[in-house]
Design brief:
The protein is of the alpha/beta class. Among the domains are: about 90 residues, Conserved hypothetical protein from pyrococcus furiosus pfu- 392566-001, ParB domain (Alpha-Beta Complex); about 30 residues. It is about 60% helix and about 10% strand. Strands 1-5-3-4-2 form a five-stranded mixed β-sheet, covered by helices on one side.
Length: about 270
């Protein structure tokens, strides 16, 4: 994809029938924010189209949409018959993977997306152009992309253990800690015999120290289960803050509470 963005894009302004514009199949399946499209349609109707969609020739009287799916949907909503477009020249035509990336990234940057929509977009883009290109296009780290993808990012070889031998959460946390698939599978085989509580502690310590040996991680996990349990009663405000901290640190609420207590005791 770097080749596409490092070279200048050449196009010319044309007016074409809107019915001649095709949207590639995967993009048709994407969910567009209806309320946002309505607002955009009203804006175009009142102020005109400020930034025409980009297309490229796809046969006689046929054009493939490269970017501007929301604008195209808004123009269709207001009943436009002919619309201005930026027609790419043959020297700078996109391939389909780059078109998918450009369209998704454009949609992300034009809208304030919630976590659910961002996750859906990350899955779509990863499946279209791969995780490495997806992370680079979105301007996020591969690890952040994996957090958005969750179980969707787990390779098929690890998914085969779910749900009979590992839970979805187990497989997800294992792969996020150990992205090397053969190594992750070896660890999976070692933790499958463990009960769920011990396995959860094991994966927690694995995430903290990915280079630790299996015996060392197992020892830490068992020690964690033997620690004295303390019940804390929090008011609603403090409970919300604890959940927020846990989410930011990618931890369970109980794990976050234990960390806070441990840090506090160390300072005493």
């Amino acid at each position: 994809m770097a080749k596409r963005y490092n070279s200048p894009i050449s196009y010319r302004l044309r007016e074409i029938p809107i019915k001649q514009i095709k949207v590639w199949h995967d993009a048709q399946a994407r969910k567009l924010d209806r309320e946002g499209i309505s607002e955009l349609a009203r804006s175009i109707k009142n102020e005109g189209l400020q930034n025409p969609p980009m297309v490229q020739k796809d046969g006689k009287n046929s054009y493939l949409l490269m970017s501007g799916q929301r604008r195209l949907a808004a123009l269709k909503r207001i009943g436009a018959k002919k619309i201005p477009v930026l027609l790419l020249t043959n020297s700078t035509k996109y391939d389909l993977d780059n078109a998918k990336a450009a369209s998704v990234v454009e949609n992300l940057h034009r809208n304030k997306m919630n976590t659910k929509d961002m996750t859906a977009a990350c899955v779509f883009l990863s499946e279209s152009v791969g995780q490495s290109k997806a992370a680079k296009s979105l301007g996020i780290s591969p690890q952040t992309l994996k957090k958005y993808l969750g179980f969707a990012a787990v390779p098929d070889k690890l998914k085969e253990y779910v749900p009979k031998k590992l839970s979805r959460d187990d497989a997800t946390r294992l792969y996020q800690s150990i992205p090397n698939v053969p190594k992750a599978i070896k660890i999976a085989e070692k933790i499958i015999p463990l009960d769920q509580r011990l396995r959860k502690k094991y994966l927690y310590h694995l995430a903290k120290s990915t280079k630790s040996s299996h015996p060392k991680l197992l020892k830490k996990a068992k020690a964690a289960l033997l620690q004295q349990r303390v019940t804390l009663e929090l008011n609603k405000s403090h409970a919300r803050k604890l959940r927020s901290l846990a989410a930011k640190n990618n931890l369970e609420v109980t794990e976050m509470a234990a960390k806070i207590m441990s840090d506090y005791m160390k300072r005493r």
